[in-house]
Design a protein that fits this description.
Layout lengths: L7 H27 L8 H8 L3 H29 L1 H20 L4 H29 L2 H32 L8 H4 L1 H15 L13 H20 L7 H26 L8 H4 L2 H31 L4 H7 L1 H22 L2 H22 L12 H23 L7 H31 L4 H23 L28
Amino acid sequence: MSDPSPTPDETTESFRWRWLILAVMIVAEIMDLLDASIVNVAGPDLEKSLGAGSVGLQWVIGGYALTLGAGLVLGGRLGDRHGRRRMFLAGLAAFTASSLLCAVAPNIESLIAFRLLQGTAGAMLLPQGLGLLRENFSGPELTRVFAVFGPVLGLGGIIGPVLGGFLIEGDFFDLGWRSVFLINLPIGIAALIVAAKSVPDKPGDRRVRVDLTGAALVAISCALLVLPLNQGQENGWRPWTWLSMAASVIGFALFALQQRRTAAAGREPLVTPGLLRKPAFTVGLGGIALFFGGLIGTQLVLTLFLQIGQHFTAGEAGLGNLPLAVGTAIGGAVSGAFLADRIGRKVLQIGPLVQLAGATVLWFELDGLDAASFPIRDIVPGVAVAGIGAGMVIAALFSFILAAVDDDEIGSASGVLSAVQAIGGSIGVAVFGSVFFAQAETGDFTRGFHRALIVQACLLVAFLAITFLLPKKGRPDDEQHGIATDSAAKQHLTV
């Protein structure tokens, strides 16, 4: 006997809970993404409290992005196998607990370890959000959900430094920098309670095999790359640093080979091997690493310059990031609303040129600074113009790279792109931090910023060259998360 049709009250209740799921996903994942940038303004406080030097600060900031990126694809696979609700709740609980550990860290070494743990928890949490939304929404409604989900998540990175500066400068209950981690506790606990109540428990597919060997190769290769970049400056670039970076390249090559062999043996690889045979997708990965490495690295240098070089408070340094944030929002709105559709991949070429123009203006603005009296308005034009260029690229980059892959590869491709974005940010923190601190040790902070701008210019030129190898048109927005209106099967692709 079939189940009776749901009553209108039951249908209304189900609808209400589904929209509560969207709210929980947004809150939890903003909390995750927020922690990638919220500690940028905590440098001086960490130095006073824990004796953190330049290398320690780079690890606190970049270590989170490293483990987050290295574990994202694995986190998605674990959700497929064990159920997305179960992995979401486990990841959220681990993220909240690791935030508490970060807040009570007695020294810089333990804080770094807890940040690495926090990034790992984030990697388990972050991929589940899109999958859970696909499980509970469908059709045009799902498209509207992603129209809300994407832009709201973008706020995480923008408001991170501002919120971090507010919390540190407010020094609530004499907590100082520890408050930037403690804020996750009430949010995380509330999200756990609501998620446990509202998210349906759908079982995973035990037939899905998790490629732990591939995951280990990615994690080891990433560590071999970021470790010397963080430690090299302090250690005088000894031979082991170069050997470690060479070993990282070998590790990534072994990963690609292992993925092909895993697929050939009939087992499920971590990454769909066909992606690695698509030149446009492969060079697109390099473009993402270059672009986000330069963007996040330069944002860090801006914050360090304001705090260490110009003696801004944490709150002032956080507000000093607003011109970049506003510029990015403007550029993204213009690009996403009409420019990318009208001129195609040219938007990816105009964007870095605008960034280079902003960096050039900023260079001359820095030359004219009065070290004794420095109002932030003196560098607002250059920073804002650079932000507009960055926003133009951010809004369109993923869609052009995803246009190079087949429909059944979108899920795997999206996960890989997100992972490379996070790892690229970690590398950017290491490289730009080393470049800036090399000059900061001599007291020449302006020259340190100048050198960082030179590095960014080189990365942008390389990125500009790569854009000519990408497809001329981007993939439509409603297909970028595995959504295709003409086939129900395509609505459940996993990240």
